[in-house]
Recover the amino acids of this structure.
């Protein structure tokens, strides 16, 4: 390449770089300008923007160009400076001294699980031993020994480790499991059970390849051992529990559900998680024949539903579930399903349909005639639909106004979802460096 050609090459290179920077800045400004704000007249955002139509016909948004839905959902590695993109992360991330102020995280929950403070009032417990050889008399320094303590604890990890649970991990209340600063995997064994306890935070760990375990005698507190039946292989099972916050988890390949919340569990927020490679993803509600889950309140926000997922994102039987600003880049059958008399409010999500025409519908009603499911309140507001995706609404046309603001969490515009969920899943954190 001679001098003239070299000169033209550098001119073109810097022109492209300048254009890219300008576009990036414009996108940032646009996202900020598009944020929703609470109306000044004192009404809630949901009430001010409620859908008033009574039609239950499918609402469809068409696009003339949909470049590979797979690429639209990709979350590549990010090598730039710390950049929180949603309100939860802005609350604690990008502080180099985060490791000295870990409990700041407990102030950052939003949605129905906002009261979960975990082990904020307790001591720091450092897990130094990844083994789980004795589930009746767990060794000090193991995760199982930490979670059975009666006192509040903020549980962290000395270093990278893979914990293969011999039996389900049953925990006491007022606990935080905080994986920041280490590469922590719970894998190739049993999952986590949050049963009849309150105030739990689980943050920044990998949970995958969870298997069915046979049950037996398991210690669930320092002063009690119980006989457990077979564990189905859920990644996380929430059973009769309250005030739970699950944040920045990367989960896949569980024998049963990724996350189940049943038997009257309520006050739950599931946020900033990334899920792949699974059939039954999220199940809320145990049975159609029970009313114990009518009080269930769950917020699902800023999550990325990724590759090779089939269904239940979530599947809801009763209670109220607020689905906000999630990125649905993949599903093989449907995204949101339910039965009984579930109330589902979907706001500001991005739904990218699969190629097969028979699976374009976001919603799926389980085993109910139309005359019945038309009474269930399932409303979509401000959602973005691509690839032919559509959401079939039903129930109270003012449902968004009545239910969408109960968790005091307002949606951002759906076009901002890719940014809001950019760091979904486990994020790398090192002491002394912003996460």
């Amino acid at each position: 390449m001679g001098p003239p050609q070299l000169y033209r090459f550098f001119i073109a290179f810097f022109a492209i770089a300048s254009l890219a920077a300008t576009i990036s800045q414009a996108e940032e400004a646009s996202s900020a300008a598009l944020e929703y704000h609470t109306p000044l007249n004192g009404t809630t955002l949901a009430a001010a923007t409620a859908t008033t139509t009574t039609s239950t016909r499918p609402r469809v948004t068409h696009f003339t160009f949909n470049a590979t839905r797979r690429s639209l959902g990709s979350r590549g590695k990010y090598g730039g400076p710390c950049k929180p993109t949603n309100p939860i992360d802005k609350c604690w991330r990008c502080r180099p001294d985060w490791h000295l102020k870990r409990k700041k995280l407990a102030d950052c929950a939003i949605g129905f699980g906002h009261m979960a403070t975990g082990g904020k009032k307790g001591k720091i417990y450092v897990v130094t031993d990844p083994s789980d050889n004795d589930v009746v008399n767990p060794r000090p320094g193991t995760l199982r020994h930490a979670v059975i303590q009666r006192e509040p604890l903020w549980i962290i990890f000395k270093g990278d480790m893979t914990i293969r649970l011999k039996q389900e991990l049953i925990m006491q209340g007022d606990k935080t499991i905080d994986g920041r600063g280490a590469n922590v995997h719970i894998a190739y064994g049993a999952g986590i059970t949050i049963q009849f306890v309150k105030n739990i935070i689980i943050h920044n760990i990998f949970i995958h390849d969870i298997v069915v375990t046979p049950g037996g005698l398991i210690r669930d507190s320092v002063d009690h051992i119980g006989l457990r039946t077979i564990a189905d292989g859920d990644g996380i099972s929430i059973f009769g529990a309250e005030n739970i916050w699950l944040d920045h988890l990367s989960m896949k390949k569980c024998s049963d559900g990724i996350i189940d919340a049943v038997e009257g569990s309520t006050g739950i927020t599931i946020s900033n998680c990334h899920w792949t490679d699974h059939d039954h993803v999220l199940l809320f509600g145990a049975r159609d024949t029970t009313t114990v889950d009518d009080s269930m309140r769950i917020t699902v926000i800023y999550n990325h539903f990724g590759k090779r997922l089939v269904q239940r994102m979530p599947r809801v039987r009763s209670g109220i579930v607020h689905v906000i600003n999630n990125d649905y880049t993949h599903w093989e059958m449907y995204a949101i399903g339910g039965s009984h008399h579930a109330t589902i409010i979907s706001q500001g999500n991005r739904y990218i349909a699969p190629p097969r025409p028979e699976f374009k519908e976001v919603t799926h009603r389980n085993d109910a005639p139309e005359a019945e499911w038309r009474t269930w309140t399932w409303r979509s507001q401000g959602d973005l639909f691509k690839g032919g995706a559509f959401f079939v609404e039903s129930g109270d046309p003012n449902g968004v106004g009545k239910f969408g603001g109960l968790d005091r969490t307002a949606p951002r515009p759906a076009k901002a979802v890719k940014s809001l969920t950019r760091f979904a899943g486990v994020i790398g954190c090192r002491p002394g460096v912003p996460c």
Q: What stands out?
A: The helical segments are 3-33, 45-48, 69-72, 87-92, 143-147, 370-373, 399-403, 417-420.
